C-alpha cells in the first residue's frame, strides 16, 4: 500500500509529510505525527542550537523497536531548499573524503528531518567554518551509579570550571546521564578544548577516585561516573538540547536549573529523565535555560603552561 502523503507549506517551503499515524514509540502509543508536532512546538528554542552546525541524525524508520541507522549525508530526494555543507570527513568508515551534511537553519528543514523518522539529532561542538564554541562534559554513569550520582559530579565539575572563569549549563541526556555545556571563545582548536577537558576530568578523578573515572575502559566504570572528555574531539557529536531520544517512551534531552541538579544530587527530588510532554510544559516557566550558549564565552586557560 502506498504511503499516505500530505502536502504542506511551511514558511514558504513546500514539502510532503507521510505516515503520520505510524507508531514511533509503540510502547507509549506515540506516532510520527506526534514526533513532528513535538519538534514543531520546541523549534523556537531548538533551532538556534542547531543553526550552523552539521547535523547527524539517528533514524528509526520503523520506530524505536525496529532497526536504526546513523545518517550524516544528505539522503536522496533532499529538497533543493535544504542547506547543505560539504565538509571533510577524515577517517570515514566508508572511505569518503567529504560528506554533504544537512544544516537545520529553519523550521521547514526541521520538519522535513522529523518526517524522515530522525528521532535523535546530534551536533558537533563547532559551527561550519569555525573552531569549537562549546566545551561539553558528558557524564556517563556505570551501574549501579545513575543520574543522581551524575548530578553530584556535575556540581563538582561546575565548581571546578568556575575556578577558570567558565560557566556550565546542565541538561539531561534523555537516556542515562547528563551533559554540561560550556560556552567558550571560538578561537581555540578542538585539540586544545579536548586537552583541557581531559585535564580537568583527570583532576576530579584523582580527587574522588571512588566515584569518578576519566578512563575510557569499560572495566573501570561500574559504580562510577565516567567523565567523557573525548566528546570535544572535532569528529564527535553530542545529542542536541531538546532532541528526542530513542527510549521505550519519548524522553528528551532537557535543560535543568542548578537548583534542580542539586535537589537530584541530594535526593530531595527524584533523579530522572523527562518526557517530551514534560519538557514542553517546562518551556513556559523556564524558557531556554541554555540561551547563554548562543553567545561567545571566554578562552580556555592553557593548563599545559601552568
UniProtKB/TrEMBL annotation:
Biological source species: Winogradskya consettensis
InterPro entries documented for this protein: LigD_pol_dom, MtLigD_Pol-like, NHEJ_LigD
A matching Pfam family: LigD_Prim-Pol
PANTHER family cross-referenced by the UniProt entry: BIFUNCTIONAL NON-HOMOLOGOUS END JOINING PROTEIN LIGD
Domain DNA ligase D polymerase positions: 31-289
Protein name: DNA ligase D polymerase domain-containing protein
Amino acid at each position: 500500500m502506498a504511503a499516505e502523503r500530505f502536502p504542506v507549506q511551511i514558511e514558504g517551503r513546500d514539502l510532503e509529510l507521510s505516515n503520520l499515524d505510524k507508531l514511533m514509540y509503540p510502547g507509549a502509543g506515540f506516532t510520527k505525527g506526534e514526533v513532528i508536532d513535538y519538534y514543531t512546538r520546541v523549534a523556537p528554542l531548538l533551532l538556534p542550537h542547531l543553526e550552523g552546525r552539521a547535523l547527524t541524525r539517528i533514524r528509526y524508520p520503523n520506530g524505536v523497536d525496529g532497526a536504526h541507522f546513523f545518517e550524516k549525508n544528505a539522503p536522496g530526494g533532499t529538497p533543493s531548499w535544504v542547506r547543505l555543507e560539504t565538509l571533510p570527513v577524515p577517517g570515514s568508515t566508508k572511505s569518503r573524503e567529504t560528506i554533504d551534511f544537512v544544516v537545520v537553519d529553519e523550521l521547514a528543514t526541521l520538519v522535513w528531518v522529523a518526517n524522515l523518522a530522525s528521532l535523535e539529532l546530534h551536533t558537533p561542538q563547532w559551527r561550519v567554518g569555525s573552531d569549537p564554541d562549546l566545551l561539553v562534559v558528558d557524564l556517563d554513569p556505570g551501574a549501579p551509579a545513575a543520574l543522581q550520582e551524575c548530578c553530584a559530579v556535575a556540581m563538582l565539575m561546575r565548581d571546578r570550571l568556575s575556578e577558570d572563569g567558565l560557566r556550565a549549563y546542565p541538561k539531561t541526556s534523555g537516556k542515562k546521564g547528563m551533559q554540561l555545556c560550556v560556552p567558550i571563545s571560538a578561537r581555540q582548536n578542538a585539540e586544545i578544548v579536548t586537552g583541557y577537558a581531559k585535564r580537568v576530568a583527570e583532576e576530579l578523578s584523582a580527587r574522588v577516585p571512588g566515584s569518578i573515572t576519566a578512563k575510557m575502559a569499560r572495566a573501570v566504570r561500574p559504580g562510577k561516573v565516567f567523565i567523557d572528555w573525548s566528546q570535544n574531539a572535532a569528529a564527535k557529536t553530542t545529542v542536541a538540547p531538546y532532541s528526542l531520544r530513542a527510549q521505550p517512551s519519548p524522553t528528551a534531552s532537557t535543560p535543568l536549573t542548578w537548583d534542580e541538579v542539586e535537589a537530584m544530587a541530594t535526593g530531595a527530588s527524584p533523579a530522572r529523565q523527562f518526557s517530551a510532554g514534560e519538557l514542553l510544559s517546562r518551556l513556559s516557566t523556564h524558557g531556554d535555560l541554555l540561551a547563554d550558549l548562543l553567545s561567545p564565552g571566554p578562552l580556555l586557560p592553557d593548563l599545559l603552561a601552568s
